[in-house]
Specification:
The chain has 101 residues and is mainly alpha-helical. The chain has one domain. It has 4 helices and 2 strands; from the N terminus they run ααββαα. A hairpin with a 2-residue loop joins strand 1 and strand 2. The longest helix is centred in the middle third of the chain and has 29 residues. The termini are far apart. The relative contact order is 0.05. Bound molecules: zinc ion. The site of zinc ion has 6 residues, from helix 3.
Length: 101
Protein backbone atom coordinates (compact mmCIF):
# COMPACT_ATOMS: atom_id res chain seq x y z
CA UNK A 1 0.00 0.00 0.00
CA UNK A 2 1.43 3.33 -1.06
CA UNK A 3 1.43 6.32 1.24
CA UNK A 4 -1.30 7.95 -0.83
CA UNK A 5 -3.59 4.90 -0.52
CA UNK A 6 -3.06 4.93 3.22
CA UNK A 7 -3.85 8.64 3.36
CA UNK A 8 -7.10 8.13 1.38
CA UNK A 9 -8.14 5.11 3.45
CA UNK A 10 -8.25 7.00 6.72
CA UNK A 11 -10.69 9.85 7.32
CA UNK A 12 -9.26 13.35 7.73
CA UNK A 13 -8.52 14.66 11.22
CA UNK A 14 -11.20 17.35 11.00
CA UNK A 15 -13.95 14.72 10.43
CA UNK A 16 -13.40 13.21 13.86
CA UNK A 17 -12.99 16.67 15.38
CA UNK A 18 -16.32 17.84 13.93
CA UNK A 19 -18.11 14.64 14.95
CA UNK A 20 -16.92 15.20 18.53
CA UNK A 21 -18.69 18.59 18.65
CA UNK A 22 -21.95 18.37 20.61
CA UNK A 23 -22.99 22.02 20.32
CA UNK A 24 -23.08 24.64 17.55
CA UNK A 25 -20.70 27.66 17.71
CA UNK A 26 -23.44 29.63 19.53
CA UNK A 27 -23.87 26.88 22.14
CA UNK A 28 -27.12 25.20 20.99
CA UNK A 29 -27.11 21.38 21.29
CA UNK A 30 -26.64 19.16 18.24
CA UNK A 31 -29.51 16.83 19.19
CA UNK A 32 -32.25 15.28 17.04
CA UNK A 33 -34.74 18.08 17.70
CA UNK A 34 -32.33 20.93 16.96
CA UNK A 35 -30.32 19.53 14.04
CA UNK A 36 -30.79 19.15 10.31
CA UNK A 37 -28.31 18.18 7.62
CA UNK A 38 -27.17 20.11 4.54
CA UNK A 39 -24.73 18.33 2.21
CA UNK A 40 -23.83 15.97 5.02
CA UNK A 41 -23.06 18.77 7.48
CA UNK A 42 -25.02 19.31 10.65
CA UNK A 43 -26.85 22.60 10.95
CA UNK A 44 -28.39 24.16 14.03
CA UNK A 45 -32.16 24.86 13.77
CA UNK A 46 -32.09 27.50 16.51
CA UNK A 47 -29.44 29.48 14.62
CA UNK A 48 -31.35 29.06 11.33
CA UNK A 49 -34.53 30.39 12.98
CA UNK A 50 -32.64 33.34 14.46
CA UNK A 51 -31.16 34.18 11.05
CA UNK A 52 -34.58 33.99 9.38
CA UNK A 53 -36.15 36.23 12.03
CA UNK A 54 -33.33 38.76 11.63
CA UNK A 55 -33.72 38.65 7.83
CA UNK A 56 -37.47 39.25 8.04
CA UNK A 57 -37.00 42.06 10.57
CA UNK A 58 -34.31 44.01 8.70
CA UNK A 59 -32.68 42.80 5.51
CA UNK A 60 -35.93 42.09 3.69
CA UNK A 61 -37.03 45.69 4.22
CA UNK A 62 -33.65 46.88 2.97
CA UNK A 63 -34.06 44.78 -0.17
CA UNK A 64 -37.57 46.15 -0.76
CA UNK A 65 -36.25 49.69 -0.23
CA UNK A 66 -33.40 49.12 -2.73
CA UNK A 67 -35.90 47.85 -5.32
CA UNK A 68 -38.17 50.85 -4.74
CA UNK A 69 -35.22 53.22 -5.19
CA UNK A 70 -34.07 51.44 -8.36
CA UNK A 71 -37.56 51.61 -9.81
CA UNK A 72 -37.82 55.36 -9.17
CA UNK A 73 -34.37 55.91 -10.74
CA UNK A 74 -35.09 53.64 -13.74
CA UNK A 75 -38.76 54.18 -14.59
CA UNK A 76 -38.37 52.99 -18.19
CA UNK A 77 -36.68 49.72 -17.20
CA UNK A 78 -39.23 49.22 -14.42
CA UNK A 79 -42.11 49.63 -16.89
CA UNK A 80 -40.45 47.19 -19.32
CA UNK A 81 -40.04 44.70 -16.47
CA UNK A 82 -43.72 45.11 -15.54
CA UNK A 83 -44.74 44.48 -19.15
CA UNK A 84 -42.62 41.30 -19.35
CA UNK A 85 -44.08 40.01 -16.08
CA UNK A 86 -47.66 40.79 -17.14
CA UNK A 87 -47.02 39.03 -20.47
CA UNK A 88 -45.62 35.99 -18.67
CA UNK A 89 -48.69 35.80 -16.40
CA UNK A 90 -51.04 36.12 -19.41
CA UNK A 91 -49.09 33.34 -21.14
CA UNK A 92 -49.33 31.09 -18.06
CA UNK A 93 -53.10 31.71 -17.81
CA UNK A 94 -53.54 30.96 -21.50
CA UNK A 95 -51.57 27.70 -21.13
CA UNK A 96 -53.63 26.71 -18.07
CA UNK A 97 -56.88 27.39 -19.94
CA UNK A 98 -55.77 25.31 -22.92
CA UNK A 99 -54.63 22.54 -20.60
CA UNK A 100 -58.06 22.33 -18.98
CA UNK A 101 -60.18 22.16 -22.18
ZN1 LIG B 1 -26.99 27.33 17.11
Amino acid sequence: MSWIDKALAQEPRWAAENRAKTHCPKGHPYDAANTYAVYGRRRCKACARAYQAEYRATRRHEAVERTRLWRSNNPEKARAQNRRRAEKIREQRRMAKEGRS
